[in-house]
Amino acid sequence: MTALSLKRLLFISGKGGTGKSSVSTALALYSASLKAKTLLVELNAPNRLAPLLGHSSSPAEPKLVEPHLWMVNLQFQSALKEYALMVLKYEPIYRTVFENRWTQRLLRFIPSIQELVLLGKLLHHAREKTPHGQYRFDKIIVDAPATGHVTRLLSIPSLLLRTVPPGALADDAQWMNASLQAPTTAALLVSLPSEMAVQETLELHHALSTEVHMNVAAMLLNRFVPPLFEESELCHPALTSQAQLLQLAQQQHALATASKAAFARLSQLPTPTFKLPHIPFARPTRQAILTLAEHMREMEGLL
Amino acid sequence: MSVGPLSSMEVLICVGPGGVGKTTLSAALALAAATRGRKSLVCTIDPAKRLAQALGLQRLGNQEARCCLQQHKLEIQAAPNPQENPCAENKGAENKDAQNKDAGGQPPMASFWAMMLDTKHAWDELISTHATPSQKTRIFNNRFYQSLSNSLAGSQEYIAIEKLWELKMRRDYGLVVLDTPPIANVLDFLDAPSHLLGFLDTEISKHLFLPMLSAGRWGFRLWKASNNLFLKTLSRFTGIQTLEQLSEFLLSMGQLYEGFRTRARQTQNLLEAPSTAFVVVTTPHPERVSEVEHFLETLEKRKLQTAAVLVNQTHLPLEPHSREALRALPKTLAKKIKLAHQTLRQQADEDAYALQKIQTLCHNIPLKIIPALDSSHSELKRLWQLSLIFQNSP
Question: What pTM was computed for the model?
Answer without folding.
Answer: 0.79
